[in-house]
Amino acid sequence: MSANREAMGQKQFAKGHFLFILGTCLLSLLLGILYTPIWGGETAFSIQFIAHEIVAEPRGLKLWAYLSIGLGAILLAGLVGLIRPGKACGLSCTVLAGIAIVLVLIQLPPVFLWGMMLPVDAAAWLPILLHGTALFVGLCAAGLLKNLRNK
């Protein structure tokens, strides 16, 4: 009976939890790539609304993009490790929940900055939508990982 419950718990993780955590990983990677100046030195989103000094020397923006990509990749690697059969969710779930929380926290500045631009630039709805979705999905993923740790 206990083995059956463990198997059901593993199925529940694979079906429900997996999608939120995978969504967090993919959104983090996507947003990091969109803010990486790889298209001729330009980012996918125009960031001209930020002060000229920041746009001319976008170290903070690059740091944000690389952090988003790196943490998303680490979370994805941890997710791959968690879906292995018989893998117990102990300290690794706590670490992954912490990474998901950091990914949520780094979404807050872009949401607020793009939100301030919305009255001026109607095109700001797309970045707000992407960052807001990453924020919501990341919160769900962090909660799910924390609950897996407690089981």
From TrEMBL:
Keywords recorded for this protein, A-Z: Membrane, Transmembrane, Transmembrane helix
Top-level lineage group: Bacteria
Transmembrane segments: 18-38, 63-83, 95-116, 122-145
Native source species: Paenibacillus chitinolyticus
Name of the protein: Uncharacterized protein
